Amino acid sequence: MSKIHAVITGVGGYVPDYILNNQELSTMMDTSDEWIRTRVGIEERRILKEKNTGASFLAAKAIDDLFSKTKESPENIELVICATTTSDHIFPSCAAMTAERTGIKNALAFDIQVACSGFISGLEIAAAYIESGKYKKVLVIGAEKMSAIIDYTDRTTAPLFGDGAGVVLLEATTGELGIMDSLIHTDGSGGKHLRIKSGGSAYPATAETVEKREHYIYQEGQHVFKHAVSNMSEVSVAIMKKNNLTKDNVAWLIPHQANLRIIDAVAKRTGIEYEKIIINIDRYGNTSAASIPLCLWEAESKFKKGDNIILTAFGAGFTWGAVYLKWGY
Ligand code: UT7
């Protein structure tokens, strides 16, 4: 019997309308368009402004887009995995809220919190479910309202992040297509360098935690930068070697979008030509778990059936990894 693979059969995406550009940010804090462009590569990012809406709003819009393109029916979806660090609430899950918003009623739905590596981790989990024969139609979402956890008085983090969501439909196939391999790593010793200290069970919200601004992202930028470059490069090279891929037969590299300088360094270290790197950081900033599915969404028309694609991400935890897939349509 031929092996079952999980293949992407559709992509959806959504970014909010509001554009926060570097000029506007420069009126809010001591920064400049020039600094942000040259040090990070961002020109603008999208911000979800609608009151009392969270990541499930973005995720549902992305799924609406997917369903309208694929004509897939919500009743047929058996599993919804939502990668997010900015779920609407501590519970219920963003996945459950998103399922409700999109008419998905026959599925197991859960969130995973693997920070910026959440989407590739979701693909690995989804592939295992599909390869086992348990499920045949699975949604993997990356949805983030990063603006909810940003301190807009902190110039070292505020310019970096934006809001958005992307989703893929994965289906079972016996063809040599879809997710071929994945390598995911965790090093919890990196936790203190990139985190939100309070609001969880160790430091629940108090007037003091709010006053100390402990509900926002804290990042030691340079430390994270070095690990992002080396770990994303190493894991990309490792998955290429393991699958006999070279820079020439990889059609596309889709790195997590945290800093254009990180993307450049990963491109250089893998040897993959710059024209094959998918980039959206200039327009959306770092959308955490949504960055890779948003790249897939925008670049969908460039992909050809059988294209070898490498996805790679690095984020809080530390967590990082790579997925090798063959495009299915
Ligand atoms: O997605 C999860 C993983 N995250 C990442 O991969 C992010 C990794 N880190 C980075 O991308 C970069 O480290 C940052 C973009 C966060 C920072 O860039 P950097 O080149 O590492 O800058 P730096 O922290 O070394 O700061 C250089 C200077 C400092 O001034 P002094 O001390 O040299 O006078 C900062 O105070 O730039 C200053 N600075 C700014 N200046 C203008 C920091 N932020 C800003 C700003 N505008 N927004």
According to CATH, what is the topology of the largest domain? Peroxisomal Thiolase, Chain A, domain 1
CATH architecture of the largest domain: 3-Layer(aba) Sandwich
Q: What sort of overall outline do the alpha carbons produce when their principal axes are compared?
A: globular
Number of helices: 10
Q: State the name of the first-level CATH class of the largest domain.
A: Alpha Beta
Helix content class: 25-40%
Q: Give the mean pLDDT.
A: 98
| Total beta strands | 13
Give the uncertain stretches in residue-range form.
Answer: none
Structure notes:
- By secondary structure, this protein is an alpha/beta fold.
- The chain folds into 2 domains: 5-179, Peroxisomal Thiolase, Chain A, domain 1 (3-Layer(aba) Sandwich), CATH 3.40.47; 180-326, 3-Layer(aba) Sandwich (Peroxisomal Thiolase, Chain A, domain 1), CATH 3.40.47.
- The chain contains 10 helices and 13 strands.
- The protein has helices at 22-28, 33-39, 55-70, 94-102, 118-131, 207-211, 221-242, 260-270, 281-284, 291-299, and strands spanning 5-14, 18-21, 44-47, 79-83, 108-112, 137-145, 163-173, 178-186, 194-195, 218-219, 252-255, 308-315, 319-326.
- The strands form 4 sheets. It has a 5-stranded mixed sheet, sandwiched between helices. The protein has a 4-stranded mixed sheet with strand order 8-13-12-11, sandwiched between helices.
- Helix 3 (55-70) crosses helix 4 (94-102) and helix 7 (221-242) packs parallel to helix 8 (260-270).
- The longest helix is centred in the last third of the chain and has 22 residues, at 221-242.
- 49% of the residues are buried.
- The mean pLDDT is 98.
- Bound molecules: oxa(dethia)-CoA.
- Oxa(dethia)-CoA is lined by residues 31, 35, 39-40, 116, 155-156, 159, 221-222, 224-225, 228, 258-259, 262, 286, 314-315.
